[in-house]
């Protein structure tokens, strides 16, 4: 259902996680958007971790079976007298692309955001669901339908 074919993005993401460097050579913290993808009956469920992201800062697009999730984590406003002592939480825009198979009905995606987790539910397309085929048995001129 989910096709993973973004090798350069994955290499860059792994390098960033391992070495802390971005592709441009600047140093930063990892900016991962962890994802789980699960088939649950007649739907495909994708869960993405986006802690600290305002729901208004999440953008989801689907174009030609490519699902793109963009989210922006903004700094919290502590006032003008605040002095940063430690900062480890990555800020800025995060993006993740997932290549979806043709068996998913991308016109009926449902998105819900709760406790920092974005959950997308994508129904399996009717044409991709398993179905029974009736067998017609012909014996001496009469027909019987045998359901499978």
From TrEMBL:
Signal peptide (UniProt feature, chain positions): none
Q: For the SHSP domain, which residue ranges apply?
A: 26-139
Q: Which PROSITE patterns match?
A: SHSP
Q: Please give the superkingdom of this protein's source.
A: Bacteria
- Family the UniProt entry places it in: Belongs to the small heat shock protein (HSP20) family.
What's the name of the protein? SHSP domain-containing protein
Source species, please? Actinoplanes palleronii
